Amino acid sequence: MATDPSLRPRAEEVRSRVAELIAEIAGLPVAELTDRLAALGGAEAPRAETPRESDTGLPALPGAVAGQVVLRLAPFPSGALHIGSGRMLFVNQAYRERYDGKLLLVFDDTIGSEEKRVEVEFFDLILGDLELAGVRPDQVLFKSDRIAAHYPWARRVIDRGAAYVCRCAQEELRDKRQRGLACPERSQTPEEAAAEWERMLGGAYAPGEAVLRLKTDLADPDPAFRDRVLFRISDLDHPRVGHRYRVWPLLEFSWAVDDVELGVTHVLRGKDLVVEDRMERYVWDLLGIQGPPFLHWGLLRVREAKVSKSKSYREVKDGVYDGWSDPRTWSLRSLDRRGISMAALREFTLSFGLSLADIEVPAETLYAENRQRIDATTLRRSFVPAPVRVEVDGYPFDLAEVQLANHPDRAELGTRAVPAGPAFYLAQADLAHHAGAEVRLKDLVNVRLPSEVPEAGGTIRAAFTSRPNQRLPRLQWVGASGAVGVDVLHPDGTHAVGLGEAALRRAAPREILQFERFGFVRVEENWTAATEPVRVVFAHP
RNA sequence: GCUCCCGUAGUCUAGUCCGGUCAAGGAUUCGGGGCCUUCGACCCCGUAACGCGGGUUCGAAUCCCGCCGGGAGCACCA
Q: I need a labelling partner for A258 at 20 to 30 A (CA). Which of A19, A192, A365, A464 fits?
């Protein structure tokens, strides 16, 4: 009916006829269907298997030509990239790959403010984050190197009669803007404005005394858009360029300039920056420039991660957090520390597409993605939190040591020798839960537990019952011989201590392991083999 | 308050531009079952959604209007 209008008036008839046919077809055997389909010249219907590859979810970039796309990342250097701000990395990187484009890293280090200061240590920190995420920019630029290039643009706007030097006090400016009133300076001729601008550049004004403002419609429904400030004066010491400049562009104008000067073809950024689109476009329209299109995405929050950049900043500075890789920051590097791969994080992030909706996702979705990637290659080890020593009466002599598989499904990962009974450590919680019952020590033997269970650190006696595997509750154990202390750092910053099997002494720093019935962990990078406790970070169940 | 944006299962998302192939696909979670000596993996099965109300149309998740709900922004910060 979509293609043949003559059928439309007979829609009911068509509908019932289609229903009949469907009923008929549904009753036919598959072989018959295949034959008939072939007779009609139809292709064999392949089972639609949606590829798991991510980028397919992203829309095409408007007007993008492979090999000619230029994108840019513009982080403000005020802290490590976290799970939310990492989105810009992966989205830009995905498009760059898709179009074989260029990616510029442009540090947005204009002078900032007293509250929002540029700090030099963050340049390297962010560079490190990019490296970790597998994003290698084609070029690294600093806004602070490009300030002088912005001045001619100011003149172009001024010469169009579209900007003026305003000397209102900040409060006054804000108040007038709110009420849609003009400042006296707004009527400056281009010549007067240019002269004032030169005075401003020449140092005639102190910080706060004068700004360059764009002329927009003072009746604009969005008060924030009315005569926005383009340049202001600041005496703050910049960590890279010191006091070389006093007149600094504000973000929107600086991008109106640089998106054009750097040849950026598509601007991909978070939707917190949508008003900036409007400003950039306004400037471009004014100068008759066709600027790049903008694409945005909404806020991404991970439910478990209460990411406050300023809080992280404070806690890291004050030493409350263990640096920027503290799991509580949910920074990229903290996820890496936990054993969550950047590939998983990328997949996770890109799965949200470019939706403008603000979303909150449970971390479990990320964990599932990561688990899929690491499960097959991760060695299994035994760990017991809050252990109680269990002496087993009647334990078989020949089972002082057993060979256990490193992975239940993958023999190629080998086995390891594990010291076993007659003395073990078991988790206090497990024992309490099964007090008085017969249980199976996983992969080993069956024992009967006493009905009284002490606190962690205590000792009890249990009785050997039999060897064959039975349908009994399975408990994780660590042989007392060779047991090694283990310290697990959890994502909330707390530590769990317990004992692990002897093989953990030979663990490699950064190795990812699965503590059976406990979860995936990663050995700390700075843990030295053979020191105790073995220090690991919890990834996820 | 003003400006902009967004409403598809518990969660996230595809589909919306350009109405029919959508009795709505995928992921994750949850429930049931199977299997392996993990609470992990894998396999099978299942629950579950177009915010509400009108309109246009033979036909609406898709177009129009209204409402309701949610979010973000509103700096001489970025």
A: A192
Nucleotide nearest to A519 (CA to C1'): B40
Give A340 CA → B42 C1' in Å. 22
Q: Which residue is nearest to nucleotide B14 (CA to C1')?
A: A57
What are A416's strand-pairing partners? Answer: A404
Chain B nucleotides reached by a protein CB under 7 Å? 1-8, 10-15, 19-20, 23, 25-29, 36-42, 58-59, 70-78
- Residue A369: what residue type? E
Domain ranges of chain A: 5-39, 64-137+292-377, 147-249
Query: CA of A409 and C1' of B43: distance in angstroms?
Result: 14
Rounded, the Å distance between the CA of A47 and C1' of B62 is 26
A361 CA from B63 C1′ (Å): 32
Q: What is the mean pLDDT of each run of 10 residues along chain A (541 residues)?
A: 69 66 58 57 37 56 89 88 88 92 93 81 92 94 94 94 91 85 89 94 92 89 86 92 93 93 93 86 91 89 79 86 91 94 91 87 92 91 92 84 87 87 89 86 89 84 85 88 92 91 90 93 90 92 91
Kindly provide the ipTM of the predicted complex, given to two decimals. 0.90
Contacts of A84 (CB under 8 A, 6+ apart): A299, A300, A301, A302, A307
Domain A64-137+292-377: assigned CATH number:
3.40.50.620
* Other CB atoms within 10 A of residue A131 CB: 10
Nearest to A114 by CA among A17, A234, A270: A234
Residues 6+ apart with CB under 8 A from A352: A87, A297, A300, A359, A361
Look up the CATH number of domain A147-249: 3.90.800.10
